[in-house]
Amino acid sequence: MKYSNYPVFFRNILTISSMTALAAGFTACTSLHTVNLTADHTVASSSVQVDVVGVNKNDKSIETAPLRQYWQPGSPVRSNSNMSTVRFGPGQNQTQTIEGNWGGKGESEVVVIADLPGAFQDMPGAADPRRLIIPVSKAAKVDVLVTSGGLILQQK
Length: 156
Fold this sequence. Notes:
Layout: H1 8-28, E1 32-39, H2 41-44, E2 48-56, H3 61-64, H4 67-70, H5 76-79, E3 83-88, E4 95-102, E5 107-115, E6 131-135, E7 141-147, E8 150-154
């Protein structure tokens, strides 16, 4: 039976059902679930801490906070964030995975922040190589290389 032969009521139900299914499909694609962090040889042999933080579009203070202050004990920006932390160093796995459902609670981005040794100038946003900002719609899984020079999003 052709679509146009159905009564208007049924055509409206079919249209709404199709739109709902389509919207559900788009929603499923806008969440980041896995961040794989891999340390290069220099980072793996030193002591480095990395935070992965889901950021709500209304509070992006973590994207502009000076990282020197972020890593200070008792930092309000760090202590108020909902982060997951991994540590690299001797005896630690060179690749570590953080699982989450970023985007499911209103997060628009995931921010990866590394406490790297060495002298770095604090810069806002992604201009600081120790901070990587990833839109949750990028993919369901991303790979990040942690180097002594900064964080690198691995493209596949």
